[in-house]
Amino acid sequence: MIKFKEYIKPKTIEDAYNLLTTKNAEIIGGGAFLRLSNRKIDVAIDLIDANLNFINEINDSVEIGSMVTISEFEENPVLSKLYNGFLKNVSETVLSFQMRNIITVGGTLYPKYGFSDLITALLVLPTEVYLYKSGKFSVEDFLKTRLEHKDILAKIVIKKENLKTSFQYIRNSEYDFSILNVAVSKGNEVKIAVGGRPAVAQLAYKTMQFLHGKDLNEEIIKEAAKMVSEEIPFADDIKASKEYRKKVCEALVKRALLEVM
Ligand SMILES: Cc1cc2nc3c(=O)[nH]c(=O)nc-3n(C[C@H](O)[C@H](O)[C@H](O)COP(=O)(O)OP(=O)(O)OC[C@H]3O[C@@H](n4cnc5c(N)ncnc54)[C@H](O)[C@@H]3O)c2cc1C
Predict the structure, then answer these.
(1) Residues 141, 91: one domain?
(2) Which tens digits make up the pLDDT trace of 30-60?
(3) Which among 27, 33, 94, 132 is the best mutation to test ligand 1's pocket, defined by most ligand atoms within 8 Å of the CB?
(4) Is the N or the C terminus of the chain less surrounded, counting Cβ atoms within 10 Å?
């Protein structure tokens, strides 16, 4: 079990950042994942009082503070309707409602867990990640960037666009992690993300380029699904082999593309 000597609830993100960078400290979001580790840290910085629990609809965007819990994607009137309930549906696949009431947006995105369902979904939406010190990134760039220093995820901003979306996953049981997950969005362009590879989700750039300017039909979808399974790198882990993931990927991408067609 995790052990810490001091527990602090800063009132601002600035105070939290100063603590984080001057001590052997760690940010606590919901604490759901962190509590499973047996690390020893000097200072636990709980962001609960740092005014990061906000959901604001501003023109064509929604900004979501890092301390907003995943259950808000089901409960909040704005978030639950965003992209016709796409993120609501994705969130509902994560554990139980009690756990989703604890798990935060910051704790989900910042650590870039490979099994994350929400990261895969956000990769196909126009989403920006705001870090307190390092500034603004697209989710795509944030996932690729290795930060040189500790930072704090302040908020994400999701732009509203006219996109059709689909999320597909496979897992051994309802409360287990995804063995593989796939998200697709279709507006003028098609975006395809694959996560649980088991590494963190990534976009299928070659296949997205192949689909550029094409109308989707069953033949093209079949070809594209195969391309994704060949383009994305998979690996073995305790849950599945890389060959299994490759096969499942083709089937899930096909299903997702048919859904947005
Ligand atoms: C048993 C279990 C099963 C799970 N199953 C799934 C699943 O099926 N699908 C899925 O998508 N996810 C799953 N998750 C992961 C979950 O969605 C969250 O990613 C995870 O719990 C972390 O969220 P948290 O708010 O509890 O963060 P914490 O546990 O508090 O923190 C996790 C890490 O993020 C850092 N952190 C937290 N907030 C910030 C911030 N604002 N800025 C910078 N760093 C920050 C912490 O320092 C820590 O290193 C599961 C988690 C658990 C515990």
Answers:
(1) yes
(2) 999 988 888 889 999 999 999 999 999 999 9
(3) 33
(4) N
